[in-house]
């Protein structure tokens, strides 16, 4: 498919009606912001929620790692107080070597008091005792009773898994406590202290593991969380998960922890604490946020769709009303019901339509009246055409009889009269040029001069470029006839006809005389057609007025200015083209 074909195909699918296009645009502007803003917001908010959950769980495992590191450090610090050469170990050796019962008792009480003070100053220490292999009673100065199975145990063969080794310090655990009636998990330190030649003893200290690391049973929220403690070499030392046993290797990347999100913190000695959070719990806040997000998105979409539907109805309903009124106006021009909407813009449109309808009705009425007036003029014209063929034939007969009998004046008079009669009774177009109108006027003037024996003179002044301008017939002749019969009062009377361009696209026709003038009431009577001339062709100024209305509408202006004993001036201003009626043939 070419680009042009694809474009034509797309154009064919494009809606053709305003309603369909409005629906399409509303759907686009409704869905597009929700998709763009929704997808962007969802992506970033999802990342924020995931980071929030990750940071929270990572901070927990970091805190527990720090607590374990601090506990190991405290165990090492307390063990330092129990060494010889400056520590409590000197008093223990003196106690073991003295034979005096009283001295032995005194030293025992002193050592017991010192151990008590150490316990008070280090409350995390759960148990302390000395293990001296060289003596029959190897375990000495235990701070609390030990489990019976520990009485004869050799600490050189420690039954627990070693956590890590640091010089003479061996860390173990988590393992059950050695104290009687205590089943808590603990981490412990076994420190080897050398004295004399080839002699050594051990100091054992332990602290509760669950006080350092939150147990899954501590609260309901953590009941599904699991913990794994691994050595630096990656083998498991302790695990809450049945599938991960002590001594097995662990996947540091967390790929094998199905259903859990792993969080890891490494201790200072290289060991690692793993916090395994169930995926459902890890994403609980994210899921809650997702539900809220989709709920708000659905609500926003519903509100937007409702708003779009309201806008569609708000626009479509007034348009349908306008369309209905236009359709009704095509066959019924009567006044319809007033249209009102809640929107000022459509009310203004309805008002404009109502005014336009009124103007059209008025225009139709004016056209009907003009056509009626044209018909009346045509009737008058037809009435004036009393068998023109008979008249022409009769005049021709008279003309040739006069010529045959040598009556030259009668011959000329009949010839001019025939031309005037032929021009006025012709059935050709009502539109002629100024040149043709002036020719007919000259014939009329010649006829009247013969009739009145040169009583008056008519002076015509027409600009050459005006000769081919179209005008209705019988415009000049009635004006001159009016000056002849109503203005002149002596043989010295003169009539002036002036035709020139008065402004752009308009011409002025002025007919003036120096006669006796016309009274104002007589002027009004002539314009209204109340009096018909008793001589001439009897067409009158009323005819001129009607012709101007028919062919120029309101663009024609006719003025009569008359002064008694001074004369009369008739001025007509018309466009240089015909606005209505027939065209010029």
TrEMBL record:
<dbReference type="InterPro" id="IPR004358">
    <property type="entry name" value="Sig_transdc_His_kin-like_C"/>
</dbReference>
<dbReference type="InterPro" id="IPR005467">
    <property type="entry name" value="His_kinase_dom"/>
</dbReference>
<feature type="domain" description="Histidine kinase">
    <location>
        <begin position="475"/>
        <end position="578"/>
    </location>
</feature>
<keyword id="KW-0547">Nucleotide-binding</keyword>
<keyword id="KW-0812">Transmembrane</keyword>
<keyword id="KW-0418">Kinase</keyword>
<keyword id="KW-0175">Coiled coil</keyword>
<keyword id="KW-0808">Transferase</keyword>
<feature type="transmembrane region" description="Helical">
    <location>
        <begin position="21"/>
        <end position="45"/>
    </location>
</feature>
<keyword id="KW-0067">ATP-binding</keyword>
<feature type="coiled-coil region">
    <location>
        <begin position="353"/>
        <end position="385"/>
    </location>
</feature>
<dbReference type="Pfam" id="PF06580">
    <property type="entry name" value="His_kinase"/>
</dbReference>
<dbReference type="InterPro" id="IPR003594">
    <property type="entry name" value="HATPase_dom"/>
</dbReference>
<dbReference type="GO" id="GO:0000155">
    <property type="term" value="F:phosphorelay sensor kinase activity"/>
</dbReference>
<keyword id="KW-0472">Membrane</keyword>
<keyword id="KW-0902">Two-component regulatory system</keyword>
<dbReference type="GO" id="GO:0016020">
    <property type="term" value="C:membrane"/>
</dbReference>
<dbReference type="GO" id="GO:0005524">
    <property type="term" value="F:ATP binding"/>
</dbReference>
<dbReference type="InterPro" id="IPR050640">
    <property type="entry name" value="Bact_2-comp_sensor_kinase"/>
</dbReference>
<feature type="transmembrane region" description="Helical">
    <location>
        <begin position="293"/>
        <end position="312"/>
    </location>
</feature>
<dbReference type="Pfam" id="PF02518">
    <property type="entry name" value="HATPase_c"/>
</dbReference>
<protein>
    <recommendedName>
        <fullName>histidine kinase</fullName>
        <ecNumber>2.7.13.3</ecNumber>
    </recommendedName>
</protein>
<dbReference type="InterPro" id="IPR036890">
    <property type="entry name" value="HATPase_C_sf"/>
</dbReference>
<keyword id="KW-1133">Transmembrane helix</keyword>
<dbReference type="InterPro" id="IPR010559">
    <property type="entry name" value="Sig_transdc_His_kin_internal"/>
</dbReference>
């Amino acid at each position: 498919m070419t680009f042009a074909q694809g474009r034509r195909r797309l154009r064919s699918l494009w809606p053709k009606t305003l309603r369909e296009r409005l629906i399409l645009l509303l759907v686009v502007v409704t869905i597009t912001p929700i998709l763009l803003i929704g997808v962007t917001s969802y992506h970033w908010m999802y990342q924020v929620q995931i980071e929030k959950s990750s940071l929270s769980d990572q901070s927990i495992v970091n805190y527990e790692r720090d607590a374990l590191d601090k506990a190991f450090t405290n165990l090492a610090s307390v063990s330092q107080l129990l060494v010889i050469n400056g520590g409590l170990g000197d008093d223990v050796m003196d106690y073991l070597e003295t034979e005096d019962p009283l001295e032995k008792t005194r030293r025992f009480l002193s050592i017991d008091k010192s151990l008590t003070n150490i316990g008070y100053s280090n409350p995390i220490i759960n148990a302390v005792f000395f293990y001296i292999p060289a003596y029959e009673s190897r375990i000495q100065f235990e701070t609390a009773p030990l489990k019976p199975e520990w009485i004869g145990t050799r600490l050189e063969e420690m039954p627990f898994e070693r956590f890590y080794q640091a010089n003479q310090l061996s860390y173990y655990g988590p393992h059950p406590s050695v104290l009687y009636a205590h089943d808590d998990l603990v981490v412990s330190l076994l420190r080897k202290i050398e004295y004399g030649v080839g002699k050594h003893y051990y100091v054992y200290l332990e602290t509760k593991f669950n006080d350092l690391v939150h147990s899954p049973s501590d609260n309901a929220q953590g009941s599904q969380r699991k913990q794994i403690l691994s050595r630096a070499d990656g083998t498991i030392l302790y695990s809450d998960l049945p599938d991960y046993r002590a001594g097995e290797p662990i996947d540091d990347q967390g790929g094998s922890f199905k259903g859990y999100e792993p969080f890891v913190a490494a201790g200072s000695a290289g060991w690692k604490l793993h916090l395994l959070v169930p995926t459902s719990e890890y994403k609980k806040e994210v899921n809650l946020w997702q539900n809220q997000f989709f709920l708000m998105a659905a609500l926003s979409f519903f509100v937007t769709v409702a708003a779009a539907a309201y806008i569609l109805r708000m626009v479509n309903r007034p348009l349908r009303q306008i369309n209905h009124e236009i359709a009704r106006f095509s066959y019924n021009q009567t006044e319809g019901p007033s249209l009102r909407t809640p929107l000022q813009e459509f009310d203004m449109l309805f008002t404009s339509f109502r005014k336009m309808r009124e103007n059209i009705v008025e225009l139709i009425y004016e056209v009907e009246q003009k056509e009626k007036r044209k018909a009346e003029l045509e009737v008058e014209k037809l009435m004036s055409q009393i068998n023109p063929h008979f008249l022409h034939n009769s005049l021709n007969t008279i003309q040739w009889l006069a010529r045959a009998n040598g009556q030259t004046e009668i011959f000329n008079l009949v010839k001019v009269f025939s031309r005037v009669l032929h021009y006025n009774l012709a059935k050709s177009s009502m539109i002629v040029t100024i040149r043709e109108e002036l020719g007919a006027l000259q014939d009329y003037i010649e006829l009247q001069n013969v009739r009145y024996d040169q009583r008056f003179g008519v002076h015509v002044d027409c600009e050459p470029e005006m000769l081919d301008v179209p005008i209705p017939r019988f415009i000049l002749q009635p004006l001159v006839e009016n000056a002849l019969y109503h203005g002149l009062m002596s043989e010295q009377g003169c009539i002036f006809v002036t035709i020139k361009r008065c402004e752009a696209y308009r011409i002025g026709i002025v007919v003036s005389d120096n006669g006796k003038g016309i009274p104002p009431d007589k002027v009004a009577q002539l314009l209204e057609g109340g009096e018909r001339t008793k001589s001439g062709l009897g067409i009158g100024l009323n005819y001129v007025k009607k012709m101007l209305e028919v062919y120029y509408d309101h663009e024609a202006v006719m003025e009569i200015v008359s002064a008694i004993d001074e004369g009369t001036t008739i001025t007509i201003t018309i466009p240089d083209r015909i606005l209505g009626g027939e065209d010029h043939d």
